[in-house]
Amino acid sequence: MSLTKYQFRAQFRCTNESCRKTYPLHQVIYSCSSCGELLNVEHDLDSLKKIPAEEWKSTFESRFRSSQFPNASGVWGKKEWVLPEIKEENIITSGEGTTHLYDASRFAKDLGLKSLHVKQCGVSHTGSFKDLGMTVLVSQVNQMIADGVPIKAVACASTGDTSAALASYAAKAGIPAIILLPANKVSTAQLIQPVSNGAIVLALETDFDGCMAVVKELTQEKSIYLANSMNSLRIEGQKSISVEITQQLGWNVPDWVVIPGGNLGNVSALGMGFEMMLELGLIQKLPRIILAQAKNASPLYESFKKGFAEFSPVTAEKTLASAIQIGDPVSVKKAIRVLKKFNGIVEVATEEELANAAAKGDLYGLYNDPHTGVALASLLKSIHSGVVKQGESVVVISTANGLKFTEFKLAFHEGKIPKVDDTLKNVILPCKPTLSGVMEILGKHLKKT
Questions:
Q1: How far apart are alpha carbons 235 and 248 in whole angstroms?
Q2: What 3-state class would DSSP assign to 1?
């Protein structure tokens, strides 16, 4: 189907219902100049509704994993729902998205679920879901530069994955990238990515929230463009996860989606994706959401326990799930709105719970980063409490590739994480270089048949 005869438009709009001021997408702005609230990208739904739901489905199906530019990307295969007015020559893509939906059917059976899938967003160019948002942001910056907007660099604060994605996409576009990281709080695999891509990397003696405060000040200089998730262009790319999940399930919606939460942009993004599909008739219901936080960095959980009546930032303590070690999330108001609309809950995982859950998932063929461990632990606790019912369907969002957290895996199996379940540990067994030596060990470890 050709959509060229249709005109689709998008703009920034203030999220404050009593304000609702709008701004063009080429304006360098991240929060409302009138009331200070964050912005959303708002689409002209009336024009999108001119295309019947079944035609949108068939269009997205035909583009999925296409070899034709830019549809090799799961994000740009949905261009009309993301950045409808961008010129294709300014799109910066590395084939992000179209990640597989891992069918953990044996795990689901053992948990009493109808189905359990893990959306492997870490199977991406830089190894995390951040690629989905960064392709949109850097492409829009590329378009703005082409249109004469005087941007000389892009910048972000990061706990690792955001910096890797920004550095890579900026390098592909030829735009300088500035990275602010908390010193000694980022895994080696994550740290070396922006360094290798030629970014200006600064290690600040603070935590992520401290880095975020500095980058907000830095990007008040309009020639340095902010690339953190408070910039709603990032959310536009990440919302494609919702559409992909639904498409991969045959346009069916799971009962639950479990999402690790740090700065809380991802839950906002997935919520917006499901809302857009519902509004345009592609789905008939919304899933419920479990927002999963590490207990050592769980300000939203504390708010949830009080019915979201109030929210107070915290000083995040060290957690194995370093990417979500955030005590003052910028997207908290957006996240609370989504959780309320989706009848969502917030759950937490201790360090031993997230480590055990990640290791348990691995025994079903996964290879989970610690943040997915937080999500799996929150799911297990929700099943145990009866919130998630037997026979329900669940999709867990895996945000990053487990290979970026090799130290975490080694520490677990070498017994360096305290209080974990010893039965989940697996050690390498020394063996004599003979068949009899091998058989002796196998005789002790293989089950008798």
A1: 21
A2: coil
Amino acid at 122: G
Q: Is the pTM of this model over 0.90?
A: yes
Cα–Cα nearest to 345, from 286, 300, 395 = 300
Report how far residue 45's alpha carbon sits from residue 305's, in angstroms, rounded to the nearest whole number.
35
Contact 25, 12 (CB under 8 A): yes
Strand 256-260 to 288-294 pairing: parallel
Q: With beta carbons less than 8 A apart as the criterion, state whether 39 and 72 touch.
A: no
Could you tell me if 195 and 158 are in contact, meaning their C-beta atoms sit under 8 angstroms apart? no
Dist. CA 377–CA 361, nearest whole Å: 10
Rounded CA separation 260/28 (Å): 29
55-105 tens-digit pLDDT? 999 999 999 999 999 999 999 999 999 999 999 999 999 999 999 999 999
Give me the residue label for tokens 């879901």: 129
Nearest by Cα to 29 from 232, 175, 166: 232
Strands 10-14 and 39-43: antiparallel
How many alpha carbons lie under 13 Å from residue 141 in its C-beta half-sphere?
33
| Residue 24 one-letter amino acid | P
Burial class from Cβ neighbours inside 10 Å (0-12, 13-18, 19+) for residue 270 reads buried
DSSP secondary structure code for residue 185 in this structure? -
In 214-274, beta strands by DSSP E: 224-226, 256-260
Query: How do beta strands 10-14 and 22-23 pair?
Result: antiparallel
211: exposed, middle or buried (C-beta count within 10 Å: 0-12, 13-18, 19+)? buried
DSSP state at residue 105: H
Q: What single-letter amino acid sits at 294?
A: A
pLDDT for 2-55, tens place per residue?
687 789 999 999 999 999 999 999 999 999 999 999 999 999 999 999 999 999
